[in-house]
Hints:
By secondary structure, the chain is α+β, with helices and mostly antiparallel strands. The chain is built from three helices and four strands. It is globular and about 35 Å long.
Amino acid sequence: MNSTTLVNLFEVPAERxxxxxxLWVAADDLLRxxxxxxxxKLHRAVTPDAQFRYVNVAELGSIDAWRAVITGPEFxxxxxxxxxxxxxxxxxxxxxxx
Length: 98
């Protein structure tokens, strides 16, 4: 199976950074505990006018394991709170590599 990457974009007003980061860390901790992915990097925009101030890029260890975690009640509770930040997630595989 090819590597699968999750890319998730978030609209986070600057005054809500702390709230967002606390939720993101909680979600990250849960996914790590349940083997949802191999690695992740949370990126923050360097310009204040970016629509998506935070972008999460994660390498999934198993799509099925990841889906099992994100459909469970623990993650659903976190996701309900994160909905305020309009997450925009999709799964990707490599199309071209140089």
